[in-house]
């Protein structure tokens, strides 16, 4: 199984959250890039965020964001 462009957009959005701080949310404005707007809607539909345009991470979203951020750190480690 490979990452599709949609997965990468979702991972990039998850990486913008403060995974360890459930009080930190984000807002994806309607004027943002289409891939970011679509990724935000998909994350909400999957139950990872509280709002279709971002909001806060759900408990499942917090776990996903932590894992995404760990993966990003591993892949960028030199």
Q: What form results from the Cα inertia axes?
A: globular
Largest sheet: 3 strands, antiparallel
Q: What percent of residues are in strands?
A: 5-15%
Distance between the termini: 26 Å
Judged by helices, strands and strand pairing, the structural class is mainly alpha
- The percent range for helix content is 40-55%
Instruction: Please report the number of helical segments.
Output: 3
**Multimeric state of these chains?**
single chain
On the 0-100 scale, what is the average pLDDT? 95
How many beta-strand elements? 3
Low-confidence stretches: none
Rg (CA only): 12 Å
Order of strands side by side in the largest beta sheet? 1-3-2
Instruction: Give the domain tally.
Output: 1
Summarize the helix and strand pattern as letters: HEHEEH
What can you see in these coordinates?
The radius of gyration is 12 Å and the shape is globular. Strands 1-3-2 form a three-stranded antiparallel sheet. With 78 residues, it is mostly helical. The chain has helices at residues 5-14, 34-45, 59-76, and strands at residues 26-27, 49-51, 54-57. The chain has one domain (5-17, 25-76).
């Amino acid at each position: 199984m490979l990452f599709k462009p949609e997965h990468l957009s979702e991972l990039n959005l998850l990486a913008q959250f403060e995974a360890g701080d459930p009080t930190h949310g984000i807002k994806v404005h309607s004027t943002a890039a289409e891939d970011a707007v679509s990724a935000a809607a998909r994350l909400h539909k999957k139950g990872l965020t509280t709002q279709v345009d971002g909001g806060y991470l759900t408990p499942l979203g917090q776990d996903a964001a932590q894992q995404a951020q760990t993966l990003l750190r591993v892949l960028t480690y030199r």
